[in-house]
Each structure stands twice: as C-alpha cells, then as structure tokens.
C-alpha cells in the first residue's frame, strides 16, 4: 500500500504549510481530529489592566476553569466581575498577564492558531461592517478562515438565524437584534466546536431571544460546546448545565446548575389560612414564620434539616385550617446574591 504510506507525510507537509498561512486555520483545525475532555481549560489565569497613570485593575485573579466538552456553560457575575476579560482572552482580543489557557486542547501560547480555529466568539460589543450585507459578511468571514467554497454554508446559517430575507440588506439597516444574530452567524462560519457568547441577549427582544436560545440549544445538541455570559440569571438557570459565578475576578462558585441551586438548601412554603391571623401562632414562630398578609404565612426552611411534614404538623397544632399552600425553590438570583454577599463580607 504505497499510496497509503504516503498519506501521513502528505498531511504533515500540508500542515506545515497551513500553519504558516493564516488563511488555512480552518483546514488546520479540521485536519486535526481531536476530542478533548474539556473544550476550555484555564489555570491560574490573571489579568491586570494597567492604564497610564491609573491604579492597575486586577480583572482576573487566578481563574481555574474546566469547561467540559459538550456542555452549555454559563459564566455569571455582576458588572465588572471579569467575564468579558475572560472571553476576550479566549478571543485573542486581550493579552493575559499570566496563567495558561487551553482551547480544544491547544495552548494559546504555543498553538494560538489551532486554538482560534476551534472557537467562535460573539463579543459583547457589536463589530459588524455596516456597508456589507449579511451574505457578504459571512462570505468574507469564511474567506478569512479559509473555508473552501464547497464547504461554506452561508445560506444555511442565514436561514438558521432568521436572516435569510435580509441576506442582501446593508447591515447598517438591520435592527439591533438582527445585528446580534449576524454576529452569531459570523462566529459559526468556520464550524468551530466551541461557541462563546458574551451577553448575547443584551438588547435583543423577548421573541428573538427565545429564537436565539433555541438555535443555541440545537447547536449544542449537534455537539457544539457553548460558553455564555448573561445577566439574565433565570435564562442561565434554564439554559446551562453548569454555571460558574465570578465576582471581582475570582470564581466564587462552580457546579452543575441544579447542584448549585440545591446547595442553597432552602425552600419557602407559603400557607394561606381560611381566617385572618392577628399574630403568628407560637408553634410556627419557632420555625421563623412571618406573616406576609393577614391570611398568608411564609416559612423558610432547609429541606435537608426539616421535613415539610413538620411544618404541616405545626400548622395543625396551631389549629389553623389551610386554604392553600405552595412550596417554592430559590432562584439562581437568590443564590447569586447570597454568594456574592458572602464573599463581600
Ligand atoms: P464584566 O464583563 O464582567 O462586566 P469586564 O471584564 O468587562 O467585566 O471588566 C472587569 C474589570 O476590568 C472592570 O473593573 C473593568 O473596569 C476593567 N476593565 C475592563 N476592560 C478594561 C480595559 N480595557 N482597561 C482597563 N480596565 C478594564
Ligand atoms: Mg462584559
């Protein structure tokens, strides 16, 4: 099999050539059949911004993150936490101060081009040339990454992101939501296995937001790893299977979404009684009940420490008759506030 024997040599000659030509990042990536356990890994990642005269800002203080291949991973944190800095380092828009970053198994210090080829980034700021149409924008981007014409899927991406009927419109005429979707489209032309979205729903209306998330879910179902930041914590809770919370450049929590929520170990039972209450009965006072209205008692409890039956017994002992009852779990919002408050104190 002389021909077979030739192949590896030909590929390595090709890769040698490709690695010198920025246009061949696409081919380089797709010749490289790697499936790492983690789409992104960072170790002790620091970023200090030093802007002339001002005090240096430590935006990232030793971030260790492992983002599993195939996950939808949420990066949450208040404004100024360091989310965009983290993402802009992945995007090669910001230089890290120290630490290591691996994207799809490629270290950004040693294999920046492979790392970049493996990732599609939608930055927080809109960066689209207003004088091109969406179709031209995607074709140019595909050219930039060296995607061969037969492998381009401009039309497919335009349809998927609901931009097909705007394909020939100057992008300056597109709405904010459409521009945002075009940014997502741009990030996908080189078929990266990892898609990163920095605050993708900022300024996008509710309907389009739902569409965008559907599309992101579909991409994930096809195997694309998604990293996103968002301020809509409820959305993160619904979208992400893992969440890292960062605050002041530190990771303060990182776990599967449902574990993070469960960790809070807090539920709230709301009991509406048939007769108005003048005061909280003693048996319920012991449990920290509060009166939300004359007929509604609210009790916060830890499910791991107290069974709900105990609450109901106390209600019974107090001689109250229940008209209605509901139990709620903490939203990620509460968790987020709790953790950031804990860290602040
Ligand atoms: P987030 O995206 O979570 O809101 P950023 O990463 O944008 O946070 O910002 C983190 C910190 O770094 C903030 O204190 C911000 O003011 C600072 N920062 C961000 N970009 C720069 C920059 N280019 N120069 C100086 N400081 C910056
Ligand atoms: Mg940001």
Question: What does the model show?
Answer:
The protein has 345 residues and is an alpha/beta fold. The protein has three domains: 2-31, no CATH class; 38-261, P-loop containing nucleotide triphosphate hydrolases (Rossmann fold), CATH 3.40.50; 265-329, 2-Layer Sandwich (Alpha-Beta Plaits). Helices cover 37% and strands 26% of the residues. It has a six-stranded mixed β-sheet with strand order 6-7-8-3-9-10, sandwiched between helices. A four-stranded antiparallel β-sheet has the order 2-1-4-5. Strands 12-13-11-14 form a four-stranded antiparallel β-sheet, with no helix packed on it. The longest helix has 19 residues, at 2-20. The chain is elongated, with a radius of gyration of 26 Å. The chain starts with a helix and ends with a helix. Bound molecules: adenosine-5'-diphosphate and magnesium ion (MG).
Brief rundown of the structure:
The protein has 345 residues and is of the alpha/beta class. It has 13 helices and 14 strands.
Instruction: Using the 3D structure, state the CATH architecture of the largest domain.
Output: 3-Layer(aba) Sandwich
Instruction: Report the radius of gyration as a whole number of Å.
Output: 26 Å
The CATH fourth-level homologous superfamily of the largest domain: P-loop containing nucleotide triphosphate hydrolases
Give the averaged pLDDT, no decimals.
Answer: 85
Strand content: 25-35%
Supply the number of structural domains.
3
CATH class of the largest domain: Alpha Beta
Which strand order does the major sheet show? Answer: 6-7-8-3-9-10
Largest sheet features: 6 strands, mixed
Principal-axis shape equals: elongated
CATH fold category name of the largest domain: Rossmann fold
Query: With helices defined by DSSP (H or I, 4 residues minimum), what is the helix count?
Result: 13
Bound molecules: adenosine-5'-diphosphate, magnesium ion
Give the helices and strands as they follow along the chain: HHEEEHEEHEHHHEHEHEEHEHEEHEH
What portion of residues is helical? 25-40%
Q: Structural class from helices and strands?
A: alpha/beta
What's the N-to-C terminus distance? 70 Å
Give a count of the beta strands, DSSP E runs of length 2 or more: 14
Low-confidence stretches: 1-22
């Amino acid at each position: 099999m002389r021909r077979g024997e030739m192949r590896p040599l030909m590929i390595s000659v090709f890769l040698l050539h490709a690695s010198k030509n920025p246009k061949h990042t696409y081919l380089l990536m797709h010749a490289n059949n790697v499936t790492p356990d983690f789409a992104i890994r960072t170790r002790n990642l620091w970023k200090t911004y030093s802007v002339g005269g001002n005090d240096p800002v430590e935006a990232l203080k030793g971030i260790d993150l492992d983002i599993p291949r195939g996950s939808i991973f949420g990066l949450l944190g208040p404004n100024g936490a360091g989310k965009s800095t983290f993402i802009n380092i992945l995007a090669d828009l910001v230089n890290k101060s120290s630490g290591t970053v691996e994207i799809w198994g490629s270290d950004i210090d040693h294999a920046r081009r492979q790392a970049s080829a493996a990732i599609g980034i939608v930055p927080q700021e809109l960066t689209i040339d207003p004088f091109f149409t969406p179709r031209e924008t995607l074709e140019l981007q595909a050219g930039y990454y060296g995607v061969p014409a037969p492998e381009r899927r401009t039309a497919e991406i335009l349809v998927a992101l609901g931009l097909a009927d705007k394909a020939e419109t100057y992008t300056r005429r597109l709405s904010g939501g459409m521009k945002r979707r075009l940014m997502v489209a741009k990030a996908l032309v080189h078929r990266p296995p990892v898609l990163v979205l920095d605050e993708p729903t900022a300024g996008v209306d509710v309907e389009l937001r739902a569409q965008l998330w559907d599309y992101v879910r579909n991409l994930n179902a096809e195997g694309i790893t998604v990293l996103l930041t968002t301020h809509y914590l409820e959305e993160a809770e619904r979208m992400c299977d893992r969440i890292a919370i960062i605050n002041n450049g530190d990771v303060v929590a990182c776990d599967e979404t449902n574990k993070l929520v469960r960790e809070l170990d807090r539920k709230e039972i709301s009991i509406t009684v048939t007769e108005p209450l003048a005061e909280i009965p003693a048996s319920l006072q012991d449990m920290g009940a509060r009166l939300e209205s004359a007929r509604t008692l609210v009790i916060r409890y830890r499910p791991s420490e107290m069974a709900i039956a105990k609450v109901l017994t106390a209600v019974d002992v107090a001689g109250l008759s229940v008209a209605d009852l509901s139990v709620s779990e903490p939203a990620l919002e509460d968790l987020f506030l709790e953790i950031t408050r804990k860290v602040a104190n």
